[in-house]
Fold each of these.
Amino acid sequence: MFGIQDPGVWLAYLLCILSVVFCIIYGFINWNKGE
Amino acid sequence: MDNILILTIVVVAYLFIIGYLGYYGYRKTKTALDYLVAGRNIHPVVMAISYGATFISTSAIVGFGGAAGMFGMGLLWLTFLNIFVGIIIAFILFGKRTRKMGHNLDAHTFPELIGKRFRSPFIQGFSGLTIFLFMPLYAAAVLIGAARFIETTFSTQINYNVALLIYTLIISAYVLAGGLKGVMYTDAVQGAIMFVGMSILLIFTYSKLGGIIAAHQALGAITDKVPAKLVAIGHLGWTSMPKFGSNLWWTLVSTIVMGVGVGVLTQPQLAVRFMTVKSNKEINRGVAVGGLFILMMTGVAFIVGALSNVYFLNNPNFGKISLEVAGGNVDKIIPTYINSALPVWFVYVFMMTLLSAAMSTSSSQFHSLGTAIGRDFFERIILRGKQSPYTVLITRIGIIIGVLVTVALGYRLPGSIIAVATAIFFGLCANAFLPTYIGALFWKGMTKTGAIASILTGTFGTILWLLFIHQKESEALGLCKLLFNKPTLASFPWVVVDPIVAILPISLIVAIVVSLMTKKPSKEHLDNCFRHF
């Protein structure tokens, strides 16, 4: 995946992207939540 | 126009902006609350960028980016941990509770938070003293990285000693005047510069090497160029993890990935950021900004560091891998790549990126050093916690002492200490404070005695491990050789296992066992601590 053979490395690459996607979605879903 | 003249104009303009923001922070600072926790009303974007810019220093970009040039893309596990632990867990799980408990207990620093949670002046004082004694090592590492970079850039105008002094004086001025408000406002601008610089670097690198997949495939195709001495210790190529259980695997996984990846949770200069916002809404918003920021910092540095091997190998002017081009010094891989692969104007942008990364980290370190020795140790232990109208003055004196100690170390420590010193401080903080911090926020059954036992176990366990077991430090420090006539008391793999892997579990077990055996805190105190949870 992503042109990388070793799953130990492409998994890290994928998890980096997914974790940032989670951060952005979480931030916007909870944008006005939280006195 | 002369390149140095252009760069000087850019740097002076940048310093004017930083100076103005420091002055703005000074104007906005009226009380000790403003000086210590920015009045608890910082904007969420400023908080998140300040957190990220403080977290990421020249050590992360140049030091660890260069390490990726040697280790390869396996370092992306550290980027994942930086985001997953450093943002998702730190903000969502720890940050919200830290903010609430900090408000409930009126805590202004990380040691004060855990000290008041367990009603122990000793915990606050000892934690403050530990931070004050060991943080200068990390602060000096950042200082050395910045001064070396300034010296290299202005090689004919400024030598290392002058660079170190000018850099320290500028940061000290706005930290002393503006307190945490000055630090966080300047962090926000510095973080924005870092984001732009690293984004351009990523786009340039992938474009130059034919796109994402082509670049990765090209890196995978040069596995046969790995030097024999690296293959011997477990290197399997720049797009592969090192051989499981090998010397290189332990170094990558235990010291670089675990040590720095987990240690971030208990960095005092980062934990205090959560106490600077007025509600959890700001922390929720900070998650989106922080996650993207960290990816664009360490993710880009590690990808570019690894891919620099393809550039250097395919370039007829070099024809060698990054480590060989840099003469075996990993700290030179990223600067050499920037200077040779990218246009001149980007060298200026990258110079500002690194200067911003260093200054944003150093300023927070100086502030934390001041609060650790001033508020946490002097006010809490020497003045026995009496209300003092001189909190800001005491903290400022603490900052000056911390800066002097750091500068003294900056003149004495060797250049190769940067990544090691960073990992030592991150590991020490995790081993000493993480079980107590987790217990403080999540376990009402954690007791004062359990917390003290865990902190002492983590602190002294780490020191002993570094002195007698972990070969890199025990050999350099020399005490083991002096006492036992050998560089370390252990054998492989323990000699390459980071203290965080060995000591943190022990510190955690001690915290649980001692807490189960000792008297619980009063219900009224716990109700006060956990109000609004």
Amino acid sequence: MIIGKNTPFSINVGSIELAIIIFALLLVAGVCFMLLYLLFVNFQEHRKSLQKEYIEQFISTIVFWEGGEIAIPAKVSKMLRYSYFRQFITDELLRAKRDLSGITGDNLRHLYEQLALNEDSVDKLNSFLWHYKVQGIHELAIMEQGTELEQIHLLTTDRNEFVRKEAQIAVVKLSGFEGLRFLDAIPYSLSNWQQINLIAQLSGVPAMNFTGIEKWLQSSNESVVVFALKLSGMYQRLELRQTVAQCLVHPSMQVRMEAVKCFQHIYDETTAALLIQKYHQGNKQYQLTSLHVLFAIGGTTDVPFLLSQFKAEDHSIKLAAARILAKYHGFSLLEAFVNSGLTNNRRPFCEWLSPKESQTHSDVYPWYDIIQQIKSEQTT
Amino acid sequence: MSWREIIFYFFTYGILIYSILLISFYLFIGLYSIGETRKYIRKNKNTDYRLLAVSSQAPSISILAPAYNEGVTVVDNVRSLLSIHYNNLEVIIINDGSKDDSLEKLIKAYDLYKTEYFVHEQIATKRVRGVYKSRNPIYRKLVVVDKENGGKADALNVGLNIANHDYIVCIDVDCILEQDALLKMAKPFLEDNDNKRVIATGGVVRIANSCIIESGRLVKAHLPKKFLPRVQTLEYIRAFLLGRMAWSRLNGLLLISGAFGAFDKEIVIKSGGYNHNTVGEDMELVVRMRRYMEMRKLPYKITYIPDPLCWTEAPDTYKILGRQRNRWARGTIETLWLHRAIFFNPKYGLLGMLSYPYWFFFEYLAPIIEAIGFIVFLVFAYLGIINWPFFFLILGFILLFGFTYSVFAILMEVMTYNQYKRYSDILRLVITAFLEPFLFHPFVVWSSIQGNIDLVRRKNTWGEMTRTGFAGDAEVKIENNLPKEILYKLNHATVVFASFSLVWLFILFALSTYEFIFNGLEHQFPEQIQITLLQVLGNDVLYWLKISSGLYVLFTAISFFSSHIAKRIYVVTAIVLTVTQIALINYFSTALVPLGADLYGYSIKDIKQTLGASGGVNNIILAGILLGIIMLWLAFKLLPSKIKLHPLVAVVLPLLSFGALFSSFTPDKMLFKSEYVNNLVLNKSDFFFKESFLYFFPNEPAQKVTPSEGDLFAAVDPQYPFLHKENTSDVLTPFFSLMAEKPNVVIVLVEGLGRAFTNEGAYLGNFTPFVDSLAVKSLYWKNFLSSGGRTFAVLPSMMGSLPFLKNGFLEMGEQMPSHLSLLSLLKLNGYRTSFYYGGDSKFDNMNIFLKKNAIDEINDEGTFPVGYTKLPKKNGYSWGYNDKELFRCYLDTRNQMDSQPQLSVLLTVATHSPFMTNEQEKYLKRFEQRMNELRFDDAKKNISRNYKDQYASILYADDALRGFFNRYSKRADFKNTIFLITGDHRMPEIPMNTKLDRYHVPLIIYSPLLKRTATFNSVSTHFDIAPSLLAFLHQHYGLKKPSLVTWIGNGLDTAREFRNIHTYPLMQTKNSIEDFVMGEYHLNGNSLFKVYPTMDEELIEDQEEANRIKATFGQFKVRNEKMIKGAKNLPDSLYKKYFPVN
């Protein structure tokens, strides 16, 4: 075929034309398939929404079931033949179970076991596909199926990060602090998100003097140390103060910062001095964290240090130091210090407090604004 | 090629290639996004985001929501934001100097008071008039900032200065967030991400039109009822669910929607915050943050959440939509312009090499190219050069592709988040996808073009706000003087380009001078040295100008982004072109003909063999090329800065370049009498590129030539273009006295045996004394022509009188059309057929041809028995067994007592480049001796000595023939054998006098059966041999032969006087059929020559004659073209009937 036929120019398009037609036919086939698939998916969704209503009603009756084996409606028994339905009812049970505990939660667990949905979960646990495995672990954990605990424990160090993470959450959910023993030898990093998850699982477990935390504080895995520091603070493990103090000189800035935060919960009379001593070994973020902790724990008498930070170049540091000074030593100290010559060649501080029209903003910036802000914060 | 043709091809192929690339990218994006979305959904299926809302470990977030004249809705919108369940949160509303009562309403609704607040101004902004907080502890998370109007970016910068938390989430205040939106956005900042710092996270924005919204919350999602918002829904699904997911997977996202995005505050501030001098501040910030991280080599990631998190009202009138798209276009170009240093800059990795170029070519340029395409279409339609069926095919395909892509996006939506569950919604989306290209897309393209125009006109506005800008920012300075800056850049690029180009011109001159001197010393200097040299340099200038036009466009375009990269690209291109020129010069120096598109006619193996055997490439040459590259690089490094040109002078170069490109001026190809000199003066690259272009974009012969009246071939059926009645006369019988038994036929094809140096009257001298002695005892056609300029043509033409098809009949390989030939027809009539060749018969697919002719034996390099000597190797390559051994092998293996008649074809090889024989010294002496015998004067001897190897090989071949005939004459079968001796073409490695010289070979038919000898001055060709021999044998032995044949030739002419009764095409190289002989004329392209009895020729101007010959040539081309397109050569029934069964 020729582009520009019967013209002075022409392009032979035989092969292009053929390619286009082939490609177009593929597209038409693709569109037809997608449209049919759309109908199919839509139909499934519609069916699910009808079933959902029925299942929710059924589950609501189970929640308050008392005594003996739960009576399963014939319709549900019949539908259980289909795997999609079993997954559907499992999902609904999980959704309900997450929000319920006690007898009502137990009823849901009984129903899950009575319908042999736990067998499906075990099958998923043994699947080769990671997302099935993750789903299986999740279901077994939510439904408190401790029988598979050991197998799940083995997966806490799995190469697949999603399997590993779900297994870690599951073992902590199923066995509380005991489940944290995987931290002893975990070669992978624990993300902040994972740490939040683990802490959330532990929140339902009665506080106790769990063991192993000393070891974790000295772990070669930086994220384990950070997590242990969080636990130390949350559970106020005062006896670990020395070990935590050692973390202030850890090579990792994140560990050092977390140690400072931890001290907010396990401090004693020496903590402020310790934090000031280690103050200059960190970056701005570390220093701000230290100042915030000092603000919270108080007890510092190292006024020269705080005044030096009030003079610091960074405005955030200035503000944080001024807050501590104002909180524990009052504004008079700040004003007196400033009057004594904080700002060379400037007017006395008392004049700043009522700046005259002739004064420019740059003369008093930023100390005037900072002190005014802190005053404003204190009055509200 | 005229400039009109160039423009036509440029647009047609340019837009085609662009479309293919664009479609490929869309395909890639569509498919690549699937994996990422699937992984995201599986990964987060069981995620309990609620943990974050109450966790003390959750990252602290400041929501920044700028508001301008939002008085009507601001109170509800803020309430919606405050209802977000997240502990570590502050909500900062920035009132950007609203003219309405927004602030008053907020103060009243939330019991706000003006607080003393120290604003740490990390980013310069407009003045903050006050910071407000609520007295009511319920609203403790709320901070309202009142500031002077400065635009959205400035307002966000104020928010950045005020924000106390580690992460910021920027949203449009009128957006509706999903309840868990913030939680989902926060999560990526807490994840591992392969130890990469997450600096930003983008979220999906969906269209809220027609949705049910109560108390600032989305209660139920509905598909918009109006068409415009609905089509934008589809557009957003495509962009967010496919495009951004794919880019997120590649970690190449350049844009996070300004309506909803989360950022690491520290990096935002370090990068300088939002740029208030662009309307595309959202994209600009992301690009700048990425640049910041890339420059410092900090590992980072920008993630993306495919969940629908944020709902916003879409424009529902064309007016507002147009304004929005106009702004987007301006934002894109401003961002791309500000960060042009990234463009194809490998320092920025994926950002520079993929993300930025993608945005430039397929986001920014797409509407512009589309608009240009449309205008070009209108022009072409007006000119009547549109092939409408093809146009509609392409148009339909593009529409279909767009529709498919949309349906795919809908499918992805349904399979993932399924916001629109009703059947009717899906159906309406599908219909919308169908209507989009007609009702929506053209408007979007138009708005985008308007955006470009407005940008140039500096109409830089956002609604009612007017950006005022800040002084002192270098980037801003450029931005504010864009037209002036463009002029400056253009000027600078032109000057720099001119200096680089001049360096390259000097290099071209140096190369041509070298070529001229080298060839002069190696071969011979032309007679008019000064004029020739001037012509050489003139051709260089012309080539240089033509190439410079393209390079100039490329250079200036890239210079706008990076002058440095433009220079590099120029240097690399110039070096590549120069090395190509060196290689082509080297080829010419060896082959004495310029390399054209015949290069594409050979397989890699063929090229390797030819180059290796000829010694064309060796380590010294490779080292020389390497050294040359280094020297060229140094020249471009050191010299351009020394050339200072005034801009007015510099601008002359591009003007001349475009003039040269668009002018129809072409240098006179036949300026000199000698073909060698005409070739010498050519710029070899210019010739090669021109030939290559014609090879890939051939002119359609049917359109070029109107066939003349009458039918040259008297074809019997249009289905078989060359099939005609066999009416070849038997002209050989009068010369023979035949026996009862069928005679043996031995055809000796001597490589490169040209008439220029063969037999009596050879203008270079008779270097074949034996062949000459044989000629006088034979039937001798002294003005005989080969059909091809190289070996590829000889077998099909001589054995089958077959057409050339596209690149020579042999080039068809296994797809060679069915045909009959001397080989198959004699075999059918009881002959045993054999082929002897010292080299590899796979060369040029000769073996395939022979097998397709049912040959009984192929004897080649691979089948030679032991004990035979090969030609000496050069660079590890040898063409195979030498000619003497070829003949020896033949005589040793053929049974002289065999009663079966024989047809044998022998092809020699020793007279091929590198012209080395096993007795080199002996024949070099013989060459000297022969020159004395021929009484050459010293001058002629000196010239001839430049080609001593060639002549020595010819003498060797002549001697080999002598030995062959001596031995043969002693055999029993000699007396009943007919010998045909001819050259496959004239050896081009000795300079040629004329174009026709390349084809001028002798034909000698010798046999003890001859009853008289004769010399013929009439012209015949290889095409005539098979028809004549068959007619002759048929006459005497009643050979079975078809009454319908496909011969191109109509038989040998035995007229003694000079005449040409034939009309034949001749094919010099594999790429194009340019030569045609008819009567006493020779047509070469558009040049017409008159051929004289000496076979010398002269260029003549006779347009009428030229047109007549072209028309006849057209008849051949039309038929040949039909065959190329798949027409059969002959009917199956005929073929089956006459093709021998093995």
Amino acid sequence: MARWGMVIDAKKCIGCWACTMACIEEHFLPPNILWNRVLIGESGKYPSVVKEMYPVLCNHCKDAVCVEVCPTGATFKREDGIVVIDYDKCMGCRYCLIACPYQQRTPYKDDKAEYFPGQGLTQFEILGKEIYPFQTGTVVKCSFCVERIEEGQKRGLKPGVDRDATPACVNICPVQARIFGDLDNPYSNVAKLIKERKGYQMHPEFGTDPSVYYLD
Amino acid sequence: MSRLMSYEWMTKYTPQEEWIEGGGKLIWLALFFTELGAGLFFVSIFFKNPLGMLLGWFICLLLGGGSFLLHMGKPLRSFRSILKPQTSWISRGVIFLTLFGAIGAVEIFLTYLAPNLDLLLLHVVMCIFCILVAIYAGILMSYVRAIPLWDTGLLPITYLVAGLWGGAELLLGINLLTGVPIERIELWIKVLLPSFALVLALYLISVTSSSTTGLTSVKRIVSGDLAIHFYLGVVIIGLVFPVTVVVYSISVSATLVGSPLFLAAIVCGLIGDLTMRYCIMKGALYSPLI
């Protein structure tokens, strides 16, 4: 069984936020909920200041602390390494949200929130509520576009290679800073990149073994 | 700490808000009430005070458990929370609370119904569950490695001592109001009050050496935006005033110290405990990701 993971080339990222927008579009995310963000920092001193872009998303950790602390089993890890939430089981204690060192979980509190307050829901928002019926009071997070992966695999497509089986944020990236693939396959594109360019995980000291690697 | 701008999120020290802002304050209250109730029940067992046990049971389950339930996004699903005791401290806590409630109800019932019955085994079992209920929230928080202010073994001990100290204070209040002699419980107070101050100081000092994020959290509490809460609520109201009353009661005699003064010290002690928990919840910071 594959262990899906992502490699993000921080040197290539131009901070366009297209991944964030593609994610919102793909999952019909309501206002104030982002599953993909770009953290922007600076290093060095004037006149040699370097702007650093770090796209962040759920790390789908191998030893995910959110899975450990969830009292109901609503957050669980699939065989392919993707950490998902069963919204029907989540009781909204938010311990997972507190425990995540990467802060990649968001409480879904307000199902009345509109993108254009006071002007009613757009067709996009109405469709989103039908396709992704998030439940108020539960916690939401990035799913590595698990529905795309599943549907693609059913059609014989290969995640990370075929666009229809690959997460939306990977497809949209204009500079191909994101690469998706099987971390357990030493011949996969992601495994090769991690080995060749010394890919690293964000804050490995937390001991969660993230499935998202970065390249500098 | 001024409010973070959205572009500063996780690129600077980011405060924990989910369990202290808005509805999150219910968790703060839930932890206070469950531990206070368990502490009161524990102390009441030693002093064979059924009223204290009953009050401790209500505080722990109704106020503490009720606050937990109110905080949940989907409280009707809370029955599911006992499903993962093998890894989740919330599951374990719910099991401890449930058993505390069930066995405690039997013990209170028997204490009132058959006061001469030997309930030693039940007392021992309930003492264990009181300790478990009083300590589990601290362990639950100390399990969060991402927050250095909480990620220490001294936090559960601090919460346990605070719970017992609060329970002893409440029992002193009950005794004062019901005319029961207070000499013996006062001895507990004399031991628990300095213990609480010592454990709290050790806890804060230990966090400062854990990481820069831990140090920043403690600085926020002792010299930052939470300093007013810490010095006024925890130090002056919660410690200095009760210590003054205790020292005064030692210098004269406990019976000569007026009840209103003792009751004021009790209320101040509880305010101090509540404020300390607020500072610990509010002062929690996540390390920047980049």
Amino acid sequence: MADRDDTRLLGGTNINRRGLLKCMTWAGTGVVWSLSGGVPRTLGLIGSAAAAQAAQGDVTFVQISDSHIGFHLPANPNPTTTLGEAIAKIKAMPTQPAFLVHTGDISHLSKEEQWDTADQVVKGANKQVFFIPGEHDVADASNGKAYLARYGKNTQGRGWYSFDIAGVHFIALINVFNFQPGFKSAGLATLGDHQLEWLEKDVAGRSASTPIVVLAHLPMWTIYPQWGWGTEDAGRALSYLKRFGSVTVLNGHIHQIIQKVEGNVTFHTAASTAYPQPAPGSAPAPGPMTVPAADLHKYLGVRTVNYVASKSAPVLTDSTLVA
Amino acid sequence: MSATANPIPRRVRFGLIFGAIGVTALLAAELPSLGASGVVADAAARAATIKIDNFAFAPADVTITAGTTVIWKNEDGEVHRVQEDHNGFSSAALDTDDSFSRTFATPGVYHYFCSIHPYMVGKIVVNPAAKSN
């Protein structure tokens, strides 16, 4: 295995990276196995040069989303329990993730006690967690002040930030503010000029071979405008990113998994840890979908993202919360 | 639905009635007392309720007289908010069964939306409470 400076590769975070490399049973001359979410995959034969690259870009993390702590309706009377089950699932993963990302709607009503509960449960994973807000986290009367005071330290503008881990550049975008009133397709989320200008500068000096992960709460492509499932100015953000060889966009909000590929950019919406929502257009409104209690866990999940080589797209594995 | 949501202002309706029976001269003389009784009737019903359900305000368009209190009640399974387009007023997040109310003292047209689901829009038309001049 190539020599590395663990601290440097981790961008200064206090994660023990050695645990991540357990998935690489045989790097250097043979097959790299990614054991991700319990599903082993062969990622191909690699030579020593490629192995060095793999070591550079090797990192596994887990995305959780839409915990909605405080929700209390029949679709899931106890989202704290299901969030706990998601964390238990993560703890049981054979390849431990380096860190977690939570793509918003941590709380249902932007209340401190709901965030307290969420933080307490998520802490059980014993990992660093990178958060972004959902619209439910900025729904206090002061429009997000409470979230930003709690989770927004060291962020820019209204909570956006970026960081680097193991050669992967992560960009946390905020598209839950500044909704403009409008009928149908006009009622989409926005990133806003201030954030877009920041984004342009943030990626300007970077090599096109840098793998990019974008975190956002609302989808970064227009999935279903009638329900506001899209971001009006996402195209401008993506125009700054399309020169990169691998861009992975992870979001929440719609409580179901939908994927799309556009050139080098792959988009992945995530399952919720709380309750499902209907498929686009399949119901009169996008509210919580109540399924038989025995089936709920099939609709909830966590997502593992595993980078093995810095120049190729990561392997994503979605796992349900079915025991 | 509350009676205050009638789209035709009371003054106009009286005008139509008196005009129809040809007592045009009587109209001016009678209006003050009719207006007074109208105010009494309005005061008894100076609240209008707008239901929030299935990601919509119902009714979406409401006409009231100045001084009427509008109550929004969230009967949906999702959290919603009520925000005037230019942030003239704004509710906090309304959970299922939560309400938000506001008394409209100033005549005008107020457009509002749900700042979480911006395609949910509504309009309040506030007519002057005074009957003449």
